């Protein structure tokens, strides 16, 4: 029996014993040794690695010939798929591992593969050197999304041996590459790697004193991290030497660019090696990324050589209390929201009541010249202000307040001995007025000067004309009554019968005192008749049933991999780990006390909520529950009551079931205590003394390399 007659299944069984590293070269050697046998060639296309420039050219030629062969075949029309479709379905990974590969050849190769409907690429790795790829090439390569992609890696090495300022003059930066990835409309790949090789990797002979080109100019990645394409990313490796990457990760984008969306909501692994990071930014990363488990910070120069063991103790305590810090920030945001909501409701009630009492003239549309004129022959009408509630005052009461009648006095003698003229009686004044004054007009136009008078002007005028027998009306400060151009009006019932008791002026920021007349408009109920009454409206936030506390989450950190300075001896690593564990235990004890107090608060009727870790809680669930709605006293309410609406300011929060005995505990599922995170100081190389299940071992599995 010859090799040509062996079935394909037998070759498949033999190749299954090979490792992934040896599989591809072995299949290639066997196919060349026995070319007429039924060798399964799909193993050659599962993982394509272009390590030399001519390999990309030969691969493109091979695919082009297969396309022409399928088109020229007589059975092409009857076959469901062509030869190109068959080869494209075999390709799972493409890795361009050459700094000088022609970018145009790579672009044409992807155009050819994308023309096939069976092209399902899962992994893409591209090396970008100083002369092969430009930003326009990457934009064209990544503009169209790869729907089945699971891993994307971009490695930059822009350094040159000879000084050139072409990049600075042309502005050839790769910020547009991030925008191209962010434009993908759906969540695709769970792993993303963007690396810029550090300049220290260049040999000493190649180092120069001139400035090297930059990869990213602004490093504005806040909107990029909140894009839909990265909503499912669980592993991120973002290495930009000496750049403030952590600050860019946690910074908020402009309001119009999805600032309400959390960055990387599913992230569990983060590698920021060789970047510029401070020690306190570790806390910031843990607060902003609630599901983060593994952090790798090799070569970041975070810790100094003179650092004392107490600093590691403080770091361990802060890492354990990350949930408390996150809960306090969320409570602060919720408190500000409730204050703004109560203020808006209060202003809305005031504006509705003021508009029902005194509605101003509606401005009708007209010519632009009349609309912008500075002079008007039309008398302005008073319009109630929406900032404070001012009941109307009858015109007669206004006239009496501004021009009070002067009491009658007997003729007296001046110091010089001359006698004053006798005062006219009320009848004489009436007769004199009827003879000389024009006919009476409407009461609203009887005092034209009040059109532009302010509240302070009326009070000052009243105090000047008042006699010693009447108490002066105190001038209201500017903070309690805003300046308005209309007439200040008051309810007739609010005018004091005794001048010694001036009327009370209420500002919008104080508790509203509703001073009713015989008929008082109430929101949603029209005109309601009743006796004059005074009631205080308390803000909803002060109500005990509306008070909300956020339960701090348990810490999620599992491992922390850092590089210590060379001055720190290897023998002191155990001391550093012990100090970190002691600080962690102290923080866990404090966390237990906080959660126990919240258990007591929940039993006393205070609403306790937690920051949900599920996708629905982060997106803002929709239900019919309100911030102050009635809930099940046992805590086991329905799902609609447990998922608040986003408009209530409770997006990302879920109600805690007070009947659950483990709801306020500090033990995770399957463990009896919160274990301290693993500290690894071995670096990224596999030859170091790594701790089991450290962050480096996770990176080797996810990123598929030893970097």
TrEMBL record:
Domain named F-box: residues: 1-48
Lineage: superkingdom: Eukaryota
Positions with biased composition (Polar residues): 410-422, 433-448
Region spans: Disordered: 403-448, 606-653
Protein known as: F-box domain-containing protein
Species per Swiss-Prot/TrEMBL record: Psilocybe cyanescens
């Amino acid at each position: 029996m010859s090799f040509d007659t062996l079935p394909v299944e037998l070759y498949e069984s033999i190749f299954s014993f090979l490792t992934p590293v040896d599989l591809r070269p072995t299949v290639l050697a066997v196919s060349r040794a026995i070319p007429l046998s039924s060798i399964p060639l799909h193993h050659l296309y599962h993982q394509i690695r272009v390590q030399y420039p001519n390999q990309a050219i030969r691969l493109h030629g091979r695919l082009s010939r297969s396309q022409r062969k399928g088109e020229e075949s007589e059975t092409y029309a009857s076959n469901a798929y062509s030869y190109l479709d068959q080869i494209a379905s075999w390709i799972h990974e493409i890795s361009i591992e050459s700094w000088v590969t022609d970018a145009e050849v790579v672009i044409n190769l992807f155009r050819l593969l994308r023309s096939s409907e069976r092209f399902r690429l899962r992994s893409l790795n591209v090396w970008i050197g100083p002369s092969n790829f430009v930003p326009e090439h990457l934009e064209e390569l990544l503009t169209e999304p790869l729907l089945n992609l699971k891993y994307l890696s971009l490695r930059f090495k822009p350094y040159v041996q000879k000084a050139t300022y072409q990049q600075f003059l042309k502005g050839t930066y790769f910020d547009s590459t991030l925008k191209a990835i962010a434009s993908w409309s759906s969540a695709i790949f769970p792993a993303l790697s963007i690396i810029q090789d550090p300049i220290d990797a260049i040999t000493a002979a190649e180092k120069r004193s001139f400035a090297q080109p930059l990869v990213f100019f602004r490093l504005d990645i806040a909107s990029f991290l909140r894009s839909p394409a990265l909503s499912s990313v669980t592993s991120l490796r973002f290495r930009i030497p000496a750049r403030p990457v952590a600050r860019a990760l946690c910074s908020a984008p402009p309001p119009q660019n999805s600032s309400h969306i959390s960055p990387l909501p599913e992230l569990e692994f983060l590698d920021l090696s060789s970047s510029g990071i401070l020690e306190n930014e570790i806390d910031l990363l843990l607060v902003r990324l609630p599901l983060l488990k593994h952090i790798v910070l090799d070569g970041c120069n975070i810790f100094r050589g003179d650092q004392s063991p107490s600093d590691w103790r403080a770091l361990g305590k802060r890492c354990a209390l990350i949930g408390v810090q996150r809960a306090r920030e969320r409570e602060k945001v919720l408190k500000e929201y409730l204050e703004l909501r109560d203020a808006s409701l209060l202003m809305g009630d005031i504006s509705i009541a003021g508009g029902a009492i005194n509605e101003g003239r509606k401005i009708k549309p007209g010519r632009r010249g009349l609309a912008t004129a500075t002079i008007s022959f039309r008398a302005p009408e008073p319009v109630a202000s929406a900032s404070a509630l001012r009941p109307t005052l009858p015109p007669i009461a206004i006239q009496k307040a501004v021009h009070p009648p002067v009491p009658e006095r007997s003729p007296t003698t001046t110091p010089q001995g001359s006698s004053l003229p006798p005062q006219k009686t009320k009848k004489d004044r009436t007769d004199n007025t009827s003879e000389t004054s024009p006919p009476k007009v409407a009461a609203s136009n009887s005092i034209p000067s009040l059109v532009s008078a302010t509240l302070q002007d009326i009070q000052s005028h009243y105090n000047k004309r008042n006699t010693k027998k009447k108490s002066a009306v105190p001038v209201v400060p500017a903070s309690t009554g805003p300046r308005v151009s209309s007439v200040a009006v008051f309810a007739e019932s609010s005018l004091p019968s005794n001048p010694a008791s001036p009327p009370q002026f209420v500002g919008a920021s104080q508790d509203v005192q509703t001073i009713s007349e015989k008929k008082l408009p109430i929101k949603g109920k029209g005109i309601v008749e009743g006796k004059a009454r005074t009631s205080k409206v308390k803000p909803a936030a002060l109500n005990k049933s509306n008070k909300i506390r956020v339960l701090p989450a348990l810490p999620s950190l599992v491992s922390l991999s850092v590089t210590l300075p060379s001055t720190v001896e290897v023998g002191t690593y155990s001391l550093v780990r012990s100090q970190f564990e002691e600080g962690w235990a102290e923080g866990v004890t404090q966390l237990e006390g906080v959660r126990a107090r919240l258990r007591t608060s929940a039993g006393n009727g205070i609403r306790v909520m937690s920051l949900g870790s599920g996708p629905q809680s982060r997106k803002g669930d929709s239900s019919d529950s309100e911030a102050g709605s009635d809930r099940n006293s046992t805590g086991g309410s329905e799902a609609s009551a447990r998922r608040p609406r986003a408009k209530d300011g409770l997006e990302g929060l879920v109600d805690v079931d007070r009947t659950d005995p483990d709801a306020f505990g500090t033990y995770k599922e399957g463990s009896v205590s919160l274990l301290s995170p693993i500290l690894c100081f071995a670096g990224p190389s596999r030859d170091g003394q790594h701790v089991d299940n450290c962050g480096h071992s996770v990176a080797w599995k996810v990123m598929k390399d030893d970097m």
